Amino acid sequence: GQLASRDPAFTHSAAFAPDGRLVTSHADAKLRVWEDEELQLLAEVDVQQPCFGVAVSSDGRRVAGAGPVP
After folding, report:
1. How far is CA 33 from CA 11, 37, 69, in A?
2. Strands 22-26 and 11-16
């Protein structure tokens, strides 16, 4: 799909924020925030290890990522 062509790493999980932005978690240990309509990358956060799940709080102020358990 369209996200796959713009995304530089395998996407494990995705969640929508209340404002419509898309937050994705990746095998390259990053969380990415995308503008929803054109899928423009707005932000990228290095989380130190692959992230297999992502969630956004109901007010959109917090993002949580879940990675492997050591």
Report:
1. 12, 12, 24
2. antiparallel
Both tokens of residue 70?
Answer: 């050591």
Taking the C-alpha atoms of residue 41 and residue 48, their distance in angstroms, rounded to an integer, is 20
Number of residues written out for the chain: 70
Residue type, 27: A
Whole-number Å distance between alpha carbons of 62 and 3: 22
In the chain, DSSP finds a helix count (H) and a strand count (E) of: 1, 6
Express each pLDDT in 28-62 by its tens digit. 889 999 997 788 999 999 988 888 899 999 999 99
Greatest mean pLDDT among 7-11, 16-20, 66-70: 16-20
